C-alpha cells in the first residue's frame, strides 16, 4: 500500500491516478481514494480526502468512521475512514 508523502506539502497532481475528484471550489476539494492509498496520519487506507487552503471549513454531517487530520504549510487535509 502506497503512503501519501506530505514532507514537501500536498499536490493533488502527484496522486491524480489514485484519487478521484468529487467536488472542487475556490479553496477546497473533496477526493475519493480509488487505490487504497495510506493515510499520512495513521497509515491505514482512507475513503475520502478533503483538502482546503481556507482558514475555516464547515461540514454538513459527520462521517460514520474515524477522522484523521494532516497539516502541511499551506493546506489542511481531513481524511475519513
Automatic annotation (TrEMBL):
<keyword id="KW-0966">Cell projection</keyword>
<protein>
    <submittedName>
        <fullName>Flagella cluster protein</fullName>
    </submittedName>
</protein>
<dbReference type="Pfam" id="PF24110">
    <property type="entry name" value="DUF7385"/>
</dbReference>
<dbReference type="InterPro" id="IPR055809">
    <property type="entry name" value="DUF7385"/>
</dbReference>
<keyword id="KW-0282">Flagellum</keyword>
<keyword id="KW-0969">Cilium</keyword>
Amino acid at each position: 500500500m502506497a503512503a501519501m508523502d506530505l514532507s514537501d506539502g500536498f499536490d493533488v497532481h502527484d496522486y491524480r491516478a489514485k484519487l478521484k475528484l468529487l467536488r472542487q471550489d475556490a479553496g477546497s476539494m473533496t477526493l475519493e481514494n480509488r487505490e487504497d492509498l495510506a493515510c499520512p496520519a495513521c497509515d491505514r487506507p482512507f475513503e475520502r480526502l478533503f483538502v482546503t487552503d481556507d482558514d475555516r471549513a464547515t461540514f454538513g454531517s459527520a462521517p460514520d468512521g474515524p477522522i484523521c487530520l494532516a497539516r502541511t504549510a499551506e493546506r489542511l487535509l481531513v481524511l475519513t475512514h
